[in-house]
Design goal:
The protein is of the alpha/beta class. The protein folds into 2 domains: 259 residues, Glycogen Phosphorylase B (Rossmann fold, 3-Layer(aba) Sandwich); 190 residues, Rossmann fold (3-Layer(aba) Sandwich), CATH 3.40.50.2000. 36% of the residues lie in helices and 20% in strands. The chain has 19 helices and 18 strands. Strands 3-4-5-2-1-6-7-11-12 form a 9-stranded mixed beta sheet, sandwiched between helices. The chain has a 6-stranded parallel beta sheet with strand order 15-14-13-16-17-18, with helices on both faces. It has a 3-stranded antiparallel beta sheet with strand order 8-10-9. Helix 11 links the parallel strand 13 and strand 14. Helix 10 crosses helix 13. The longest helix is centred in the N-terminal third of the chain and has 16 residues. Bound molecules: adenosine-5'-diphosphate (ADP) and alpha-D-glucopyranose (GLC). Adenosine-5'-diphosphate (ADP) binds next to helix 1, strand 13, strand 14 and helix 13. The site of alpha-D-glucopyranose has 14 residues, from helix 1.
Protein backbone atom coordinates (compact mmCIF):
# COMPACT_ATOMS: atom_id res chain seq x y z
CA UNK A 1 0.00 0.00 0.00
CA UNK A 2 1.30 3.45 -0.89
CA UNK A 3 0.63 6.67 0.95
CA UNK A 4 -0.25 9.28 -1.65
CA UNK A 5 -0.69 13.02 -1.08
CA UNK A 6 -2.78 14.41 -3.90
CA UNK A 7 -2.19 18.17 -4.35
CA UNK A 8 -4.86 20.08 -6.27
CA UNK A 9 -6.59 23.45 -6.46
CA UNK A 10 -10.04 21.88 -6.94
CA UNK A 11 -11.89 18.65 -6.15
CA UNK A 12 -15.54 17.86 -6.93
CA UNK A 13 -17.96 18.37 -5.20
CA UNK A 14 -16.07 20.61 -2.77
CA UNK A 15 -15.12 23.12 -5.48
CA UNK A 16 -15.16 22.82 -9.26
CA UNK A 17 -14.48 25.02 -12.28
CA UNK A 18 -13.77 22.23 -14.77
CA UNK A 19 -12.59 18.69 -15.38
CA UNK A 20 -9.62 19.06 -13.02
CA UNK A 21 -12.06 18.87 -10.10
CA UNK A 22 -13.74 15.75 -11.44
CA UNK A 23 -10.42 13.99 -11.90
CA UNK A 24 -9.01 15.10 -8.55
CA UNK A 25 -11.83 13.42 -6.69
CA UNK A 26 -12.56 10.43 -8.90
CA UNK A 27 -8.91 9.33 -9.26
CA UNK A 28 -8.23 9.44 -5.49
CA UNK A 29 -11.44 7.44 -5.00
CA UNK A 30 -10.33 4.86 -7.55
CA UNK A 31 -6.87 4.61 -5.95
CA UNK A 32 -8.48 4.17 -2.54
CA UNK A 33 -10.60 1.35 -3.97
CA UNK A 34 -7.33 -0.23 -5.11
CA UNK A 35 -6.23 -0.27 -1.48
CA UNK A 36 -4.04 2.86 -1.41
CA UNK A 37 -3.94 5.43 1.41
CA UNK A 38 -4.76 8.72 -0.36
CA UNK A 39 -5.24 12.18 1.09
CA UNK A 40 -6.20 15.17 -1.04
CA UNK A 41 -4.90 18.61 -0.05
CA UNK A 42 -6.49 21.80 -1.38
CA UNK A 43 -7.01 25.44 -0.36
CA UNK A 44 -9.95 26.27 1.89
CA UNK A 45 -11.76 28.82 -0.28
CA UNK A 46 -14.92 30.47 1.12
CA UNK A 47 -16.85 28.91 -1.80
CA UNK A 48 -15.88 25.39 -0.70
CA UNK A 49 -18.99 23.24 -0.16
CA UNK A 50 -18.20 20.80 2.61
CA UNK A 51 -20.68 18.24 3.94
CA UNK A 52 -20.46 16.88 7.48
CA UNK A 53 -17.56 17.26 9.85
CA UNK A 54 -14.75 19.75 9.30
CA UNK A 55 -12.28 19.46 12.14
CA UNK A 56 -9.21 21.49 13.00
CA UNK A 57 -6.01 19.49 12.58
CA UNK A 58 -3.08 21.81 13.21
CA UNK A 59 -1.67 25.23 12.51
CA UNK A 60 1.65 26.49 11.24
CA UNK A 61 3.30 29.73 10.37
CA UNK A 62 4.73 30.45 6.91
CA UNK A 63 6.50 33.83 6.82
CA UNK A 64 3.97 36.20 8.32
CA UNK A 65 0.95 34.04 7.46
CA UNK A 66 -0.84 31.98 10.06
CA UNK A 67 -2.12 28.83 8.38
CA UNK A 68 -4.55 26.25 9.73
CA UNK A 69 -5.18 22.82 8.31
CA UNK A 70 -8.64 21.29 8.61
CA UNK A 71 -9.75 17.77 7.85
CA UNK A 72 -12.96 16.72 6.14
CA UNK A 73 -14.11 13.99 3.75
CA UNK A 74 -14.69 14.32 0.04
CA UNK A 75 -18.49 13.92 0.18
CA UNK A 76 -19.84 10.45 -0.66
CA UNK A 77 -16.39 8.95 -0.61
CA UNK A 78 -13.89 7.34 1.76
CA UNK A 79 -11.24 9.92 0.80
CA UNK A 80 -9.88 12.38 3.39
CA UNK A 81 -9.35 15.99 2.31
CA UNK A 82 -6.99 18.36 4.09
CA UNK A 83 -8.00 21.98 3.69
CA UNK A 84 -5.37 24.70 3.85
CA UNK A 85 -6.83 27.78 5.49
CA UNK A 86 -5.07 31.09 5.23
CA UNK A 87 -7.79 33.75 5.43
CA UNK A 88 -5.56 36.67 4.52
CA UNK A 89 -4.90 35.05 1.11
CA UNK A 90 -7.82 32.74 0.41
CA UNK A 91 -10.71 34.78 1.74
CA UNK A 92 -12.01 35.75 -1.73
CA UNK A 93 -15.59 34.84 -2.55
CA UNK A 94 -16.44 33.08 -5.82
CA UNK A 95 -14.12 31.48 -8.35
CA UNK A 96 -10.76 30.19 -7.06
CA UNK A 97 -8.72 31.91 -9.78
CA UNK A 98 -10.56 34.93 -11.20
CA UNK A 99 -12.90 37.73 -10.12
CA UNK A 100 -16.44 38.15 -11.45
CA UNK A 101 -15.11 39.86 -14.61
CA UNK A 102 -12.81 36.94 -15.32
CA UNK A 103 -9.65 38.82 -14.29
CA UNK A 104 -7.15 36.70 -12.32
CA UNK A 105 -6.97 37.61 -8.62
CA UNK A 106 -4.06 40.02 -8.20
CA UNK A 107 -2.39 37.92 -5.50
CA UNK A 108 -2.58 34.52 -7.24
CA UNK A 109 1.21 34.06 -7.07
CA UNK A 110 1.14 34.58 -3.28
CA UNK A 111 -1.92 32.41 -2.83
CA UNK A 112 -0.64 29.35 -4.67
CA UNK A 113 2.99 29.72 -3.58
CA UNK A 114 1.80 29.63 0.00
CA UNK A 115 -0.42 26.63 -0.78
CA UNK A 116 2.60 24.83 -2.30
CA UNK A 117 4.79 25.61 0.68
CA UNK A 118 2.18 24.21 3.04
CA UNK A 119 1.86 21.07 0.88
CA UNK A 120 5.64 20.62 1.19
CA UNK A 121 5.45 20.93 5.01
CA UNK A 122 2.74 18.26 4.99
CA UNK A 123 4.66 16.06 2.54
CA UNK A 124 7.71 16.13 4.85
CA UNK A 125 5.41 15.58 7.86
CA UNK A 126 6.71 18.74 9.47
CA UNK A 127 3.16 19.16 10.72
CA UNK A 128 3.60 16.06 12.91
CA UNK A 129 0.59 14.09 11.71
CA UNK A 130 2.62 10.88 11.71
CA UNK A 131 1.76 10.49 8.05
CA UNK A 132 4.51 10.88 5.50
CA UNK A 133 3.51 10.10 1.93
CA UNK A 134 5.53 7.88 -0.41
CA UNK A 135 4.24 9.82 -3.39
CA UNK A 136 3.21 13.44 -3.79
CA UNK A 137 0.99 13.71 -6.85
CA UNK A 138 0.63 17.32 -8.05
CA UNK A 139 -1.82 18.69 -10.58
CA UNK A 140 -1.46 21.73 -12.84
CA UNK A 141 0.45 24.95 -12.22
CA UNK A 142 -1.19 25.78 -8.90
CA UNK A 143 0.80 22.91 -7.37
CA UNK A 144 3.88 23.30 -9.60
CA UNK A 145 6.20 24.67 -6.94
CA UNK A 146 5.79 21.52 -4.84
CA UNK A 147 8.15 19.27 -6.87
CA UNK A 148 10.64 22.15 -7.12
CA UNK A 149 10.69 22.81 -3.38
CA UNK A 150 10.66 19.11 -2.50
CA UNK A 151 13.67 18.52 -4.77
CA UNK A 152 15.71 20.42 -2.18
CA UNK A 153 14.69 18.19 0.73
CA UNK A 154 16.52 15.07 1.92
CA UNK A 155 14.54 11.90 2.40
CA UNK A 156 11.72 13.26 0.38
CA UNK A 157 8.71 11.50 -1.14
CA UNK A 158 8.77 10.86 -4.89
CA UNK A 159 6.87 13.37 -7.01
CA UNK A 160 4.47 13.05 -9.95
CA UNK A 161 3.23 16.10 -11.83
CA UNK A 162 0.12 15.81 -13.98
CA UNK A 163 -0.47 18.36 -16.72
CA UNK A 164 -4.18 18.86 -17.25
CA UNK A 165 -3.75 21.87 -19.50
CA UNK A 166 -0.59 23.45 -20.96
CA UNK A 167 -2.46 26.66 -21.74
CA UNK A 168 -2.40 27.66 -18.07
CA UNK A 169 1.16 27.95 -16.81
CA UNK A 170 1.09 30.26 -13.80
CA UNK A 171 3.44 32.94 -15.17
CA UNK A 172 4.23 35.91 -12.94
CA UNK A 173 6.71 38.81 -12.93
CA UNK A 174 10.12 37.85 -11.54
CA UNK A 175 9.71 40.53 -8.85
CA UNK A 176 7.19 38.22 -7.16
CA UNK A 177 10.01 35.81 -6.34
CA UNK A 178 11.30 37.88 -3.44
CA UNK A 179 7.90 38.33 -1.80
CA UNK A 180 7.23 34.61 -2.25
CA UNK A 181 10.47 33.82 -0.48
CA UNK A 182 11.50 31.21 -3.02
CA UNK A 183 15.04 29.80 -2.89
CA UNK A 184 17.48 31.57 -5.25
CA UNK A 185 18.86 28.24 -6.57
CA UNK A 186 15.57 27.60 -8.39
CA UNK A 187 15.66 30.92 -10.23
CA UNK A 188 17.41 30.30 -13.52
CA UNK A 189 16.36 29.29 -17.06
CA UNK A 190 16.98 25.63 -16.20
CA UNK A 191 14.70 26.04 -13.21
CA UNK A 192 11.61 28.16 -12.64
CA UNK A 193 12.52 31.03 -14.96
CA UNK A 194 10.73 31.24 -18.30
CA UNK A 195 11.73 34.13 -20.58
CA UNK A 196 12.26 36.43 -17.63
CA UNK A 197 9.09 35.32 -15.84
CA UNK A 198 8.50 33.03 -12.90
CA UNK A 199 6.78 29.87 -14.17
CA UNK A 200 4.89 27.70 -11.70
CA UNK A 201 4.31 24.93 -14.25
CA UNK A 202 8.06 24.58 -14.84
CA UNK A 203 8.39 23.62 -11.21
CA UNK A 204 6.47 20.47 -12.06
CA UNK A 205 7.95 19.84 -15.49
CA UNK A 206 11.60 20.36 -14.51
CA UNK A 207 11.67 18.85 -11.02
CA UNK A 208 9.02 16.11 -10.76
CA UNK A 209 10.30 12.53 -10.87
CA UNK A 210 7.61 11.68 -13.40
CA UNK A 211 5.34 13.82 -15.55
CA UNK A 212 1.98 12.62 -16.76
CA UNK A 213 -0.69 14.17 -18.88
CA UNK A 214 -4.27 13.16 -19.34
CA UNK A 215 -4.22 11.37 -22.71
CA UNK A 216 -1.62 9.60 -24.86
CA UNK A 217 -2.28 11.89 -27.84
CA UNK A 218 -1.86 15.05 -25.75
CA UNK A 219 1.42 13.65 -24.40
CA UNK A 220 2.73 13.70 -27.97
CA UNK A 221 1.07 16.99 -28.94
CA UNK A 222 2.66 18.99 -26.10
CA UNK A 223 6.09 18.10 -27.46
CA UNK A 224 5.29 20.22 -30.55
CA UNK A 225 5.30 24.04 -30.83
CA UNK A 226 1.55 24.18 -31.60
CA UNK A 227 0.56 22.72 -28.21
CA UNK A 228 3.69 23.19 -26.07
CA UNK A 229 3.54 27.00 -25.64
CA UNK A 230 7.32 27.29 -25.61
CA UNK A 231 7.85 24.32 -23.29
CA UNK A 232 7.82 21.69 -26.07
CA UNK A 233 11.61 21.40 -26.02
CA UNK A 234 11.75 20.80 -22.29
CA UNK A 235 8.92 18.28 -22.53
CA UNK A 236 10.66 16.44 -25.36
CA UNK A 237 13.86 16.45 -23.29
CA UNK A 238 11.93 14.78 -20.46
CA UNK A 239 10.02 12.43 -22.76
CA UNK A 240 11.42 9.33 -21.04
CA UNK A 241 9.68 10.44 -17.85
CA UNK A 242 6.51 11.67 -19.57
CA UNK A 243 3.48 9.45 -20.05
CA UNK A 244 -0.10 10.03 -21.17
CA UNK A 245 -2.73 8.24 -19.11
CA UNK A 246 -6.31 8.75 -20.22
CA UNK A 247 -8.71 10.03 -17.54
CA UNK A 248 -11.51 7.83 -16.37
CA UNK A 249 -14.92 9.08 -15.29
CA UNK A 250 -16.88 8.61 -12.10
CA UNK A 251 -19.30 5.96 -13.30
CA UNK A 252 -21.58 6.36 -10.28
CA UNK A 253 -21.88 10.12 -10.67
CA UNK A 254 -22.50 9.76 -14.42
CA UNK A 255 -24.85 6.82 -14.77
CA UNK A 256 -28.16 7.07 -16.67
CA UNK A 257 -29.55 4.15 -14.65
CA UNK A 258 -29.43 5.98 -11.31
CA UNK A 259 -28.75 9.66 -12.11
CA UNK A 260 -30.85 11.69 -9.60
CA UNK A 261 -30.84 14.73 -11.91
CA UNK A 262 -32.83 13.15 -14.74
CA UNK A 263 -36.55 12.31 -14.77
CA UNK A 264 -36.28 9.03 -16.69
CA UNK A 265 -33.64 6.42 -15.98
CA UNK A 266 -32.52 4.15 -18.82
CA UNK A 267 -29.78 1.86 -20.03
CA UNK A 268 -28.60 0.33 -23.26
CA UNK A 269 -31.54 -2.09 -23.26
CA UNK A 270 -34.14 0.62 -22.75
CA UNK A 271 -32.71 3.31 -24.98
CA UNK A 272 -36.14 4.43 -26.20
CA UNK A 273 -36.78 5.90 -22.73
CA UNK A 274 -34.04 8.47 -23.35
CA UNK A 275 -36.71 10.25 -25.40
CA UNK A 276 -38.55 11.26 -22.22
CA UNK A 277 -35.48 13.13 -21.01
CA UNK A 278 -35.30 14.90 -24.35
CA UNK A 279 -38.92 16.04 -24.03
CA UNK A 280 -38.33 17.19 -20.44
CA UNK A 281 -35.23 19.15 -21.49
CA UNK A 282 -37.07 20.78 -24.40
CA UNK A 283 -39.87 21.79 -22.02
CA UNK A 284 -37.42 23.01 -19.38
CA UNK A 285 -35.56 25.32 -21.77
CA UNK A 286 -38.61 26.38 -23.79
CA UNK A 287 -37.81 24.71 -27.09
CA UNK A 288 -40.63 23.17 -29.15
CA UNK A 289 -41.13 19.60 -27.88
CA UNK A 290 -40.33 17.48 -30.91
CA UNK A 291 -38.86 14.00 -30.91
CA UNK A 292 -37.98 14.00 -34.64
CA UNK A 293 -35.55 16.90 -34.70
CA UNK A 294 -31.92 16.23 -33.68
CA UNK A 295 -31.21 18.05 -30.43
CA UNK A 296 -27.58 19.16 -29.97
CA UNK A 297 -25.99 20.02 -26.63
CA UNK A 298 -22.84 21.80 -25.54
CA UNK A 299 -21.67 22.29 -21.95
CA UNK A 300 -18.43 24.14 -21.49
CA UNK A 301 -16.28 26.89 -20.20
CA UNK A 302 -16.71 29.46 -22.98
CA UNK A 303 -13.06 29.92 -23.95
CA UNK A 304 -10.94 29.75 -27.14
CA UNK A 305 -9.82 26.20 -26.31
CA UNK A 306 -13.31 24.82 -26.77
CA UNK A 307 -13.80 26.04 -30.36
CA UNK A 308 -16.74 28.23 -29.38
CA UNK A 309 -15.86 30.71 -32.16
CA UNK A 310 -16.28 27.90 -34.71
CA UNK A 311 -19.72 27.09 -33.30
CA UNK A 312 -20.72 30.77 -33.50
CA UNK A 313 -19.52 31.00 -37.11
CA UNK A 314 -21.41 27.85 -38.09
CA UNK A 315 -24.72 28.44 -36.35
CA UNK A 316 -26.33 30.64 -39.05
CA UNK A 317 -25.78 27.75 -41.51
CA UNK A 318 -26.70 25.03 -39.05
CA UNK A 319 -30.13 26.51 -38.36
CA UNK A 320 -30.98 26.06 -42.06
CA UNK A 321 -31.21 22.33 -41.30
CA UNK A 322 -33.62 20.67 -38.89
CA UNK A 323 -31.91 21.05 -35.50
CA UNK A 324 -32.13 22.44 -31.99
CA UNK A 325 -29.26 23.43 -29.72
CA UNK A 326 -29.02 23.83 -25.94
CA UNK A 327 -25.77 25.43 -24.83
CA UNK A 328 -24.85 25.76 -21.15
CA UNK A 329 -21.70 27.63 -20.27
CA UNK A 330 -19.97 30.74 -19.09
CA UNK A 331 -16.68 32.50 -19.49
CA UNK A 332 -15.53 34.89 -22.21
CA UNK A 333 -17.99 37.83 -22.28
CA UNK A 334 -17.74 38.35 -26.06
CA UNK A 335 -18.63 34.71 -26.70
CA UNK A 336 -21.50 34.97 -24.22
CA UNK A 337 -22.91 38.02 -26.02
CA UNK A 338 -22.52 36.68 -29.55
CA UNK A 339 -24.22 33.44 -28.56
CA UNK A 340 -27.08 35.28 -26.89
CA UNK A 341 -27.57 37.39 -30.01
CA UNK A 342 -27.92 34.23 -32.09
CA UNK A 343 -30.42 32.79 -29.61
CA UNK A 344 -32.51 35.97 -29.97
CA UNK A 345 -32.49 35.57 -33.77
CA UNK A 346 -33.50 31.88 -33.71
CA UNK A 347 -35.54 31.37 -30.52
CA UNK A 348 -37.17 28.16 -31.80
CA UNK A 349 -33.81 26.55 -32.42
CA UNK A 350 -31.15 27.91 -30.14
CA UNK A 351 -31.18 28.25 -26.36
CA UNK A 352 -28.17 29.72 -24.58
CA UNK A 353 -27.92 29.42 -20.81
CA UNK A 354 -25.12 31.51 -19.36
CA UNK A 355 -24.63 29.78 -16.06
CA UNK A 356 -22.80 27.04 -14.24
CA UNK A 357 -25.36 24.37 -13.37
CA UNK A 358 -24.22 20.86 -12.45
CA UNK A 359 -27.75 19.43 -12.35
CA UNK A 360 -28.78 20.87 -15.73
CA UNK A 361 -25.52 19.47 -17.15
CA UNK A 362 -26.76 15.97 -16.30
CA UNK A 363 -30.18 16.57 -17.89
CA UNK A 364 -28.49 17.88 -21.04
CA UNK A 365 -26.25 14.81 -21.27
CA UNK A 366 -29.32 12.58 -20.92
CA UNK A 367 -31.69 14.65 -23.05
CA UNK A 368 -29.76 15.62 -26.17
CA UNK A 369 -29.05 13.39 -29.15
CA UNK A 370 -25.67 14.87 -30.00
CA UNK A 371 -22.94 16.53 -27.93
CA UNK A 372 -20.71 19.13 -29.62
CA UNK A 373 -17.05 19.33 -28.63
CA UNK A 374 -15.13 21.00 -31.45
CA UNK A 375 -12.12 21.85 -29.26
CA UNK A 376 -9.01 23.46 -30.75
CA UNK A 377 -7.09 21.40 -28.22
CA UNK A 378 -8.34 19.08 -25.50
CA UNK A 379 -5.91 17.45 -23.06
CA UNK A 380 -8.53 14.82 -22.25
CA UNK A 381 -12.08 16.12 -22.10
CA UNK A 382 -14.72 14.43 -19.98
CA UNK A 383 -18.04 15.33 -21.57
CA UNK A 384 -17.42 13.20 -24.65
CA UNK A 385 -17.10 10.22 -22.28
CA UNK A 386 -20.15 11.20 -20.19
CA UNK A 387 -22.03 11.54 -23.49
CA UNK A 388 -21.16 8.06 -24.73
CA UNK A 389 -22.27 6.58 -21.43
CA UNK A 390 -25.63 8.36 -21.89
CA UNK A 391 -26.09 7.18 -25.50
CA UNK A 392 -25.49 10.74 -26.67
CA UNK A 393 -23.32 10.88 -29.77
CA UNK A 394 -20.29 13.16 -29.51
CA UNK A 395 -19.11 15.30 -32.43
CA UNK A 396 -15.47 16.04 -31.73
CA UNK A 397 -12.33 17.40 -33.32
CA UNK A 398 -9.49 14.91 -33.65
CA UNK A 399 -7.21 16.22 -30.92
CA UNK A 400 -5.90 15.14 -27.52
CA UNK A 401 -8.19 12.95 -25.48
CA UNK A 402 -11.03 13.41 -27.95
CA UNK A 403 -8.97 11.54 -30.56
CA UNK A 404 -8.28 8.81 -28.00
CA UNK A 405 -11.85 8.24 -26.80
CA UNK A 406 -14.19 8.70 -29.79
CA UNK A 407 -14.23 6.42 -32.83
CA UNK A 408 -15.43 8.05 -36.03
CA UNK A 409 -18.42 6.55 -37.84
CA UNK A 410 -17.21 5.07 -41.13
CA UNK A 411 -18.32 2.01 -43.04
CA UNK A 412 -15.49 0.02 -41.44
CA UNK A 413 -16.21 1.12 -37.87
CA UNK A 414 -19.91 0.47 -38.38
CA UNK A 415 -19.09 -3.00 -39.65
CA UNK A 416 -17.03 -3.92 -36.58
CA UNK A 417 -19.28 -2.10 -34.07
CA UNK A 418 -16.56 0.31 -32.96
CA UNK A 419 -18.16 3.57 -34.22
CA UNK A 420 -19.16 5.82 -31.31
CA UNK A 421 -19.21 9.36 -32.69
CA UNK A 422 -18.36 11.82 -35.43
CA UNK A 423 -14.75 13.00 -35.68
CA UNK A 424 -13.44 15.85 -37.85
CA UNK A 425 -9.90 17.06 -38.36
CA UNK A 426 -9.43 20.70 -39.28
CA UNK A 427 -9.94 23.47 -36.74
CA UNK A 428 -12.20 25.68 -38.84
CA UNK A 429 -15.90 26.38 -39.09
CA UNK A 430 -16.22 24.73 -42.54
CA UNK A 431 -14.99 21.40 -41.17
CA UNK A 432 -17.37 21.63 -38.21
CA UNK A 433 -20.26 22.40 -40.57
CA UNK A 434 -19.44 19.33 -42.66
CA UNK A 435 -19.35 17.20 -39.50
CA UNK A 436 -22.67 18.70 -38.47
CA UNK A 437 -24.23 17.79 -41.83
CA UNK A 438 -22.80 14.28 -41.61
CA UNK A 439 -24.36 13.97 -38.16
CA UNK A 440 -27.84 15.02 -39.26
CA UNK A 441 -27.64 12.56 -42.14
CA UNK A 442 -26.70 9.70 -39.79
CA UNK A 443 -29.46 10.76 -37.41
CA UNK A 444 -32.03 10.43 -40.18
CA UNK A 445 -31.30 6.69 -40.32
CA UNK A 446 -32.53 5.61 -36.90
CA UNK A 447 -31.24 2.07 -37.26
CA UNK A 448 -27.67 3.21 -37.78
CA UNK A 449 -28.06 5.86 -35.08
CA UNK A 450 -29.14 3.27 -32.53
CA UNK A 451 -26.21 1.10 -33.46
CA UNK A 452 -23.79 3.97 -32.75
CA UNK A 453 -25.59 4.69 -29.47
CA UNK A 454 -25.30 1.07 -28.44
CA UNK A 455 -21.60 0.93 -29.30
CA UNK A 456 -21.02 4.11 -27.29
CA UNK A 457 -22.91 2.85 -24.24
CA UNK A 458 -20.89 -0.37 -24.23
CA UNK A 459 -17.58 1.48 -23.89
CA UNK A 460 -15.84 1.22 -20.52
CA UNK A 461 -14.66 4.66 -19.38
CA UNK A 462 -14.34 3.75 -15.70
CA UNK A 463 -11.12 4.49 -13.79
CA UNK A 464 -10.27 0.81 -13.45
CA UNK A 465 -7.55 0.67 -16.11
CA UNK A 466 -6.16 4.18 -15.73
CA UNK A 467 -5.93 4.03 -11.93
CA UNK A 468 -3.92 0.84 -12.34
CA UNK A 469 -1.57 2.65 -14.72
CA UNK A 470 -0.99 5.36 -12.11
CA UNK A 471 -0.33 2.71 -9.51
CA UNK A 472 2.20 1.06 -11.76
CA UNK A 473 3.86 4.43 -12.28
CA UNK A 474 4.06 5.03 -8.50
CA UNK A 475 5.66 1.62 -8.06
CA UNK A 476 8.17 2.20 -10.85
CA UNK A 477 9.53 5.53 -9.59
P1 LIG B 1 -12.26 21.47 -18.90
O1 LIG B 1 -11.69 20.90 -17.68
O2 LIG B 1 -11.25 21.92 -19.91
O3 LIG B 1 -13.26 22.54 -18.63
P2 LIG B 1 -13.53 18.84 -19.24
O4 LIG B 1 -14.31 18.28 -20.36
O5 LIG B 1 -12.40 18.03 -18.73
O6 LIG B 1 -13.06 20.30 -19.67
O7 LIG B 1 -14.45 19.03 -17.98
C1 LIG B 1 -15.43 20.00 -17.88
C2 LIG B 1 -16.34 19.66 -16.71
O8 LIG B 1 -16.97 20.84 -16.26
C3 LIG B 1 -17.42 18.69 -17.07
O9 LIG B 1 -17.77 17.92 -15.94
C4 LIG B 1 -18.57 19.63 -17.47
O10 LIG B 1 -19.84 19.03 -17.37
C5 LIG B 1 -18.38 20.72 -16.46
N1 LIG B 1 -18.89 22.04 -16.87
C6 LIG B 1 -18.28 22.96 -17.66
N2 LIG B 1 -19.05 24.06 -17.78
C7 LIG B 1 -20.16 23.82 -17.08
C8 LIG B 1 -21.36 24.57 -16.81
N3 LIG B 1 -21.54 25.79 -17.32
N4 LIG B 1 -22.30 24.02 -16.01
C9 LIG B 1 -22.11 22.77 -15.50
N5 LIG B 1 -21.04 22.02 -15.71
C10 LIG B 1 -20.06 22.53 -16.49
C1 LIG C 1 -8.27 20.24 -18.21
C2 LIG C 1 -8.46 19.97 -19.69
C3 LIG C 1 -9.43 18.87 -19.98
C4 LIG C 1 -9.25 17.69 -19.05
C5 LIG C 1 -9.30 18.16 -17.60
C6 LIG C 1 -9.12 17.03 -16.61
O1 LIG C 1 -9.07 21.21 -17.70
O2 LIG C 1 -8.82 21.14 -20.38
O3 LIG C 1 -9.28 18.44 -21.32
O4 LIG C 1 -10.26 16.73 -19.26
O5 LIG C 1 -8.29 19.09 -17.38
O6 LIG C 1 -7.91 16.35 -16.79
Amino acid sequence: MKKILFVTSEAYPLIKTGGLADVCSSLPKALTELGQDVKVILPKYPALKTVGDVRFLCSLRIDNHLVSIFETMIPDSPVVAWLVDCPDLFDLAGNPYVDELGVPWANNADRFALFCRVAVEVAMDKVNRNWKPDIVHCNDWQSGLVPALLSMERDRPKTVFTIHNMAYQGLFPMQSVRSLNLPGQLMNPNGLEFHGLLSFIKGGIVYADRITTVSPTYALEIQTPEYGYGLEGLLAYRSDDLIGIINGIDTNEWNPEIDPHIPQHYNVDSLSKKQLNKAELQRRVNLPVNDQVPLFGLISRLVEQKGIDMVIDCLPDMVELPMQLVLLGNGNKTFEQRLQNLARLFPDKIVIIIDYDESLAHLIEAGVDVFLMPSRFEPCGLNQMYSQRYGTIPVVRKTGGLADTVVDTLSTSLADDSATGIVFKEAHAGALLEAFKRTTLLYSDQQIWQQIQTNAMHRDFSWRNSAKQYLELYHNI
